Amino acid sequence: MKYTEIRKNIWQISDDDGVYCTLVRGDSLAVLWDTGYGKQDIRSFVEENVQTEYIVINSHGHPDHIGGNRQFENIYAGEDAFDEILYFSKTISSAPVRYNLKKLNIGQRLDLGGIHGRIISLAGHTKGSVGLLIEEERLLLAGDALNPCLWIFNYGAMPTNQLKKTLENLEETEFDNYLCGHSDKEIPREFLKIHMKNITSMSIENSVKGITIGFETYESICEDKNGKSIIVYDRKLLID
Ligand SMILES: [Zn+2]
Questions:
Q1: Using one digit for the tens of pLDDT, what is the confidence trace for 68-118?
Q2: Widest pairwise Cα distance in the chain
Q3: pLDDT (tens digit, 9 = 90+) per residue, 142-183?
């Protein structure tokens, strides 16, 4: 496993180029945020690098974030993500799922010892997408929900008006930077302004039609001083 120390006790770890899980180590509890493709023994990596109890949380149900779930007995997720986790786990393996899915509530606070996490809804990319706000660090672990190239299609994806609501809610949320599941660099919250600009102005006419992992999609691009937002969506989900 490769890892990058983002901040003290916060590591971005990878079992495959381009997909990252996050390990957060508190004084009494650690969190493994996502399990990657499951190509390597992520459980041993965690147990070699954590001296406390730990829990495993899925940010959402896509296969590149839940592939290592089968290495563990218990997986925590937002209740709305259970269905997408079970759906995509079947695309990875036909073997029955043996781990227990355990519910995290939106707003739930996790005391890791010296550091606290809070579960927030990031519905849009998928219905069950959640973020973990590391309060003392003002850092949000966002899974795929706020990726610079944001996908809104495939099983579980929500209409674009839900993504807009999530972006509005984040304007009231206290954080400075976020981490996403496909980069080991922090992204400043200002970047979300360009996503908001994109989502409020997007139209079929100004989007480019294409095929993305086998799905017919439309791509809307918006660029300014904050960066470049790409939203790839299913036209049926474009709702004002
Ligand atoms: Zn995803």
A1: 999 999 999 999 999 999 999 999 999 999 999 999 999 999 999 999 999
A2: 54
A3: 999 999 999 999 999 999 999 999 999 999 999 999 999 999
In degrees to the nearest 10, what's the CA dihedral of 168, 59, 27, 39? -150
Question: What are the tokens at 171?
Answer: 């304007």
Residues with CB under 5 Å of ion ligand 1 are 62, 144
Q: Helices 160-171 and 191-201, interaxial angle, to 10°?
A: 150
What is the tens place of the pLDDT at every residue in 205-237?
999 999 999 999 999 999 998 899 999 999 999
CA of 166 to the centre of ligand 1 (A): 16
Q: Which domains does the chain have, with CATH numbers?
A: 2-237 (3.60.15.10)
Please give the Cα distance from 113 to 42 (Å, whole number).
23
Tell me the CB-side half-sphere exposure of residue 221, using CA atoms within 13 A: 5
Q: Measured in angstroms, how far is the CA atom of residue 114 from the centroid of ligand 1? A: 30
Q: How many residues belong to the chain?
A: 240
Question: 115 C-alpha vs ligand 1 centroid, how far in Å?
Answer: 27
Q: Taking the model in full, what pTM does it have?
A: 0.97
Dist. CA 19 → ligand 1 center (Å): 10
Give distance in angstroms: CA of 145 to centre of ligand 1: 7
Q: How far is the CA of 151 from the centre of ligand 1 (A)?
A: 7
